[in-house]
Amino acid sequence: MEQACKAFTLSKDWAGLARTLLELGQLYGQMRDFELADICLKDALRLFRRLQDKERAAMALEALGNLALQTARFPKGYLISEGCLGSS
Q1: Cα distance between residue 41 and residue 60, in whole Å
Q2: Residues with Cβ < 8 Å from 36, sequence gap 6 or more?
Q3: What is the pLDDT of residues 23-70, one digit of tens each?
Q4: In sequence order, which ranges of the chain are alpha helices (DSSP H)?
Q5: Which domain holds residue 30?
Q6: Total structural domains within the chain
Q7: Contact 19, 52 (CB under 8 A)
Q8: Among 13, 32, 23, 31, which residue's Cα sits nearest to residue 63?
Q9: Contact 45, 60 (CB under 8 A)
């Protein structure tokens, strides 16, 4: 997947890069590498917002909320989830 990120960056396929970062973030979270998961998910969210892809931005927010809950950052997880619900 990291090679896919490089390829999407070289070809300026920002939607493909964002989707790959979302998947990488989720995988890193499952592998308990929370720092890399957080970085990938935040980058994916930034790209989805820039692309105005609200559905996938919501998916990235949900993944960030789940990550916050996994790392016992409950208040932060709650706030991320509320931000997801409150955005239209």
Answers
A1: 6
A2: 24, 25, 28
A3: 999 999 999 999 999 999 999 999 999 999 999 999 999 999 999 888
A4: 2-10, 14-30, 34-50, 54-70, 74-86
A5: 2-86
A6: 1
A7: no
A8: 23
A9: yes
Cα 69 to the center of its chain, rounded Å: 15
Phi-psi region of 33 (alpha: psi -120 to 50; beta: other; left: phi over 0): beta
CATH number of residue 40's parent domain:
1.25.40.10
Contact 57, 44 (CB under 8 A): no
Here the tokens at position 87 are 């955005």
Task: Say whether pLDDT at 81 is over 70.
Answer: no
Question: Can you give the pTM of this predicted structure?
Answer: 0.77
Report residue 36 as tokens.
């890399």
Q: What are phi and psi of 72, to 5 degrees?
A: 65, 30
